[in-house]
Amino acid sequence: MTDQNHIIKLTAAEIAENIASGVLTAVEVTEAHLARIEAVDEKVHAFLHVDREGALAQARAVDEKRARGEKLGPLAGVPLALKDIFTTEGVPTTVGSKILEGWIPPYDATVTKRLKAADVVILGKTNMDEFAMGSSTENSAYGPTGNPWDLTRIPGGSGGGSSASLASYEAPLAIGTDTGGSIRQPAAVTGTVGVKPTYGGVSRYGMVAFSSSLDQGGPCARTVLDAALLHEVIAGHDPLDSTSIDAPVPAVVEAARNGSVQGMRVGVVKQFRGEHYQAGVMQRFDESVELLKSLGAEVVEIDCPSFDLGLSAYYLIAPSECSSNLARFDAMRYGLRVGDDGTKSAEDVTALTREAGFGDEVKRRVMLGTYALSSGYYDAYYGSAQKVRTLITRDFEKAFEQVDVIVSPTTPTTAFPIGERADDPMAMYLADLCTIPTNLAGNAAMSLPCGLAPEDGLPVGLQIIAPAMKDDRLYKVGAAVEAAFMEKWGHPLLEEAPSL
Amino acid sequence: MTVTTTPDLVPYEDALATYDPVMGLEVHVELGTKTKMFCGCSTTLGADANTQTCPTCLGLPGALPVVNEIGVESAIKIGLALHCEIAEWCRFARKNYFYPDMPKNFQTSQYDEPIAFNGYLDVQLEDGEVFRVEIERAHMEEDTGKSLHVGGATGRIHGASHSLLDYNRAGIPLIEIVTKPIEGAGERAPEVAKAYVAELRELIKALGVSEARMEQGQMRCDVNLSLRPHGRQKFGTRSETKNVNSLRSVERAARYEIQRHAAVLGAGGTIIQETRHFHEEDGSTTSGRVKEEAEDYRYFPEPDLVPVAPSREWVEALRAELPELPLAQRNRLREEWGVSAHDMQSILNAGAIGPIVATINAGADAVSARKWWMGELARNANEQAVDLGSLPITPEHVARVSALVTAGELNDKLARQVIDGVLKGEGTPDEVVEKRGLKVVSDEGALTAAVEEAIAGNPAIADKIRGGKVAAAGALVGAVMKATRGQADAARVKELILEQLGVEG
């Protein structure tokens, strides 16, 4: 039997290869990861629910398939951590909220279905900010997740459980969702890779909605190639999601296998620097730009004046949509029900349930959104925010006339200490300064590690942004940058993380 | 129970002497699509509670809607038949409000971008006069579920111990058709309201997009009404009488509100903008929710659905396929059948045009088709308070009964019994004839025996006839008919009696 500590350090691509060639069994691989979860998750708290039996059953099925000589998919038998925002038939789905405590969905999300169909082994459901609202995972109703680099710091959010599971070697693959940066910012602060595909690239069916026009599921991994392999499994048109794009998935795996920036024009956004940015983050970013030049890219400064309005527009659009999306949590059909003692009206039961079941940040955003949509305020708030959204989209369009991709820091700072911004929502919102414009415009972006900030020794993320439906460019550039850094560092960045 | 106080009403003529009524009619039509508006669930009525549901129409977390193309097509057909413009691009919108039987706590509807707008519908009044009702818009939306309040009086929420929720109806496609303010109808306003709803119902049925059965809630009407003194331009404050669900009720509700508004205004009071409930029992309305505290629906474009952009080719193809519109059809049929405008109006109000035409198409002659549907069957439908179309008899059945009468195999009385049998679920007309043994007795032997028996049993009458009083034969015919349980052909019986007695007929 191969050493479990060896197995958990393998990439998804390596695991799949080993299973296909018979060096490892899927059950062995799954057991190794379950053992790792058992050993460290008490400290990390990446998982809300570990589906031990389900994972082993899936793994056994893969081994049986192989024994029968059936062809295995490119990620068959590879374990994965699924953000607890995707419905899983028969397995609890809480969205990090008390209001769905105990709810067992009767159906699988399209992403869940595709993972199962590809024989990816789902280890369990990962922690997240309640309803994906947050940048630190501190808003989870089930307690915070620690950053494996420093357990007293945040792993990013909302998908902190997914990023932490990767950085702590509990899983080689994870799924996140990105409404304003919830895949990319956690990837940046944990030294992992995260991709927000083009809006409509990955089905939202069965992904509990926060802000429908911004939400996008995507792959999280420790390498660019692994992210690409996962991207291909989950992406593609879904007739159950009207906003899903009916077009071929960009060739992301091919791009990840052929990394290059030779002759590419790379944009650096003038607006993405200034007082909110940590010095060490900018230092690593500037070095990354130099690296791109050395690899043959032409770097161009671009002006995107509307990006300064992105955060404001986001905090009108996302709360507005969430105020409507979350209205269904009324204690009538599923989840928590408080005060149903036979004496109270349906309205009272709903009010009591929401009071007990929703956390502060969720209530704050529902109130903000309800206000922004109300008659007499709609034009000034929601209407204006939609106009800003159009302006930001135009800024991108103009930029992409000059460049093939844009790069920026993923998030202005490294991982901050748990509790530091918990009572300062505005400070918390700044974490998404560089990621939000992409959500508003609906195009694609990736975060990958570009070093450690000198002042605190914590990971810094490099963001690559591509036009809509050009997700493959992220992987082409990302793979080139990753390879160059690997050569420079001599090992993956994560190896510098303290052992848990 | 809420205490119902009936306010003083001003006599109708007096109200009209001072005020002009202005009406707005909002009609919801449940489309007859096989599946719901945003998911693949069946729309069949009468299934067990919550068996026709899925994650989408239950509003489960994560579920998403997908637009039913037949729903859009039906909306466009209705829009075209109402002479509307069809939007080149429009969106769904969320109407946010809370109700336990609404799964998502928002209704997916349309707001400022309806699929069809700016049209009209010509409606014909009892005397043949045509009144043009202008259409503001027709838009697509979804129905809610149903609440069943248990333990209280008369199924109302007040006093109920608990409520049960059935989501089978949730997500069934609805088209809401809204008129522009209807002005200038004067004293005929209630009649116009009724004629409009009747005409709309015919239109919907002719388009084949819904059976539009009002008693089953497939078509529901809200009557908005206000009064203004003669000569004034500005509209008065309106009341909105909700869910008026029969043609007669539409007329009564409008009439009642005219009288009530006039009473309030005449006494120096002000009309409160509110919703009102209509009561079938006495034709009154009572106060519902006051609109001043009305909810703010916080409409915004539905982000889960892409815009609907019907191509002009599609719209024109649908326009080309439109059937003959009901008013034109009625004018044609009126000539073909030779009936008066008033009779045609009665046929329309009874919802009998479709069945009669179908019966004629199935081989019956126009007179008998009309006779059955407007007579025996209309009476039956009235007794059960259902639409003609809901009766368990088909135009083919009626045509068959008519054919049996023409062939002399049934007389009128027997035919009515056959219809009764079909309505009672005893089978097709031929099966009912068979089971009930309802053939006209044409066996001459049996008939001759019955005639001889009647003559022998009534010697005095027989003598009268022999003496030339042919009219007295009626009594003997009656006796024979009685003996044959009505199954004999009366004319033939009379011939036989006269033959037997040697008298010329």
Automatic annotation (TrEMBL), chain A:
Keywords: ATP-binding, Ligase, Nucleotide-binding, Protein biosynthesis. It catalyses: L-glutamyl-tRNA(Gln) + L-glutamine + ATP + H2O = L-glutaminyl-tRNA(Gln) + L-glutamate + ADP + phosphate + H(+). Gene3D superfamilies: Amidase signature (AS) domain. PROSITE patterns: AMIDASES (PS00571). It holds the Pfam family Amidase. It comes from the Bacteria. Allows the formation of correctly charged Gln-tRNA(Gln) through the transamidation of misacylated Glu-tRNA(Gln) in organisms which lack glutaminyl-tRNA synthetase. The reaction takes place in the presence of glutamine and ATP through an activated gamma-phospho-Glu-tRNA(Gln). PANTHER family: GLUTAMYL-TRNA(GLN) AMIDOTRANSFERASE SUBUNIT A (PTHR11895:SF151), TRANSAMIDASE (PTHR11895). This is Glutamyl-tRNA(Gln) amidotransferase subunit A. It comes from Streptomyces lasiicapitis. The gene is gatA.
From TrEMBL, chain B:
It is an enzyme of class 6 (ligase). It comes from the Bacteria. Its EC number is 6.3.5.-. It catalyses: L-aspartyl-tRNA(Asn) + L-glutamine + ATP + H2O = L-asparaginyl-tRNA(Asn) + L-glutamate + ADP + phosphate + 2 H(+); L-glutamyl-tRNA(Gln) + L-glutamine + ATP + H2O = L-glutaminyl-tRNA(Gln) + L-glutamate + ADP + phosphate + H(+). Residues 354-501 form the Asn/Gln amidotransferase domain. Keywords: ATP-binding, Ligase, Nucleotide-binding, Protein biosynthesis. InterPro entries: Asn/Gln-tRNA_amidoTrfase_suB/E (IPR017959), Asn/Gln-tRNA_Trfase_suB/E_cat (IPR006075), Asn/Gln_amidotransferase (IPR018027), Asn/Gln_tRNA_amidoTrase-B-like (IPR003789), GatB (IPR004413), GatB_Yqey_C_2 (IPR023168), Gln-tRNA_amidoTrfase_suB_CS (IPR017958), Gln_synth/guanido_kin_cat_dom (IPR014746). The keyword Amino-acid biosynthesis does not apply. Belongs to the GatB/GatE family. GatB subfamily. Heterotrimer of A, B and C subunits. Allows the formation of correctly charged Asn-tRNA(Asn) or Gln-tRNA(Gln) through the transamidation of misacylated Asp-tRNA(Asn) or Glu-tRNA(Gln) in organisms which lack either or both of asparaginyl-tRNA or glutaminyl-tRNA synthetases. The reaction takes place in the presence of glutamine and ATP through an activated phospho-Asp-tRNA(Asn) or phospho-Glu-tRNA(Gln). PANTHER family: GLUTAMYL-TRNA GLN AMIDOTRANSFERASE SUBUNIT B MITOCHONDRIAL AND PROKARYOTIC PET112-RELATED, GLUTAMYL-TRNA(GLN) AMIDOTRANSFERASE SUBUNIT B, MITOCHONDRIAL. This is Aspartyl/glutamyl-tRNA(Asn/Gln) amidotransferase subunit B. It comes from Streptomyces lasiicapitis.
